[in-house]
Amino acid sequence: MKLSRRTWIVSGLAAAVVLAAGAVTLSLLPGPAGSPTAGAPAAGSSSSPSPSATTSAPAAGAPAAPAAPAPTAQSSPPAAGKRFTTEVIPADPQATPALPPSTPIPYPVSAPLPKTASATGGIVEGFPTTVLPQLPGSKVKTTSVASDSPNLQVSLTGTTDGSVTDVVGFYRQALAKFGMYDAAAPALDGATAVTYSRDGNAVTLTATPNQSGTSFALFGTFTAKG
Predict the structure, then answer these.
(1) Pairing relationship of beta strands 181-184 and 213-223 according to DSSP bridges
(2) Where are the alpha helices (DSSP H) in the chain?
(3) Contacts of 48 (CB under 8 A, 6+ apart)
(4) What is the C-alpha to C-alpha distance for residues 2 and 179, in angstroms, rounded to an integer?
(5) Buried b (16+ CB within 10 A) or exposed e, 142-155
(6) Rg of the chain's alpha carbons, rounded to an integer?
(7) Is this prediction's pTM over 0.70?
(8) Is 161 in contact with 213 (CB distance < 8 Å)?
(9) Residue 142 and residue 130: Cα distance in Å, rounded?
(10) Nearest to 173 by CA among 205, 127, 138, 149
(11) Each residue of 83-124: pLDDT tens digit?
């Protein structure tokens, strides 16, 4: 039985409609898990643009965002805390010493000792005038030296127009150069006595005021230093 041309055309159109309906149905079915639909964004990603992209590329004609205010500088730095150190700084060998080196105090009498002798109206030979100089302006009555190594005894008597204080002060200054310093000593009524001493060396001065000034006597005992 032969089909007419019109029947073939109708049959073809019906088949085309069926195929189209099947294709639409397949497109609506869910795809396999983990396989995103073509053109759709991947899972976990955001379809919205990133903030940097938004801020770096503003839309044409949109007003610019106001700039962030600059940080203000501190008016003054914070106070520094106290610092301590345990470092020991070595002394500078080239530094000048705080105190000058001390000069040794000379010893009153040293060997050899003079021979025993005496004189009237002047200074006897061998008298230790470096230790017991003659009082300026005074008159010497007698002097003597007596030696028995290493011991030496000396004496001097004289007068001066000055006062007792002048005599004591003069010999205080003279004997201090040898480290001999004075202390009060017993004396007769009206007289003043002092003793200048150092390491077993001693000088006793007795001064008595009179009508014309002061009369005085010196008696010394020394141990010579070899």
Answers:
(1) unpaired
(2) 5-28, 51-56, 164-176
(3) none
(4) 165
(5) ebbbbbeeeebebb
(6) 63
(7) no
(8) yes
(9) 18
(10) 205
(11) 545 555 566 656 655 666 678 899 999 999 999 999 999 999
Place of tokens 């004591």: 168
Rounded to 5 degrees, φ, ψ at 206 are: -120, 125
> Would the pLDDT of 44 be above 50?
no
- Lay out the sheet containing 201-210: strands in order across: 117-120, 139-148, 151-160, 213-223, 201-210, 192-198, 181-184
- Between strands 201-210 and 192-198, the pairing is antiparallel
Q: For tokens 């009498």, what's the residue? A: 109
Q: Give the helix ranges, DSSP H, for 72-115.
A: none
Residues with Cβ within 8 Å of 60's Cβ and at least 6 positions away in sequence, in order, are none
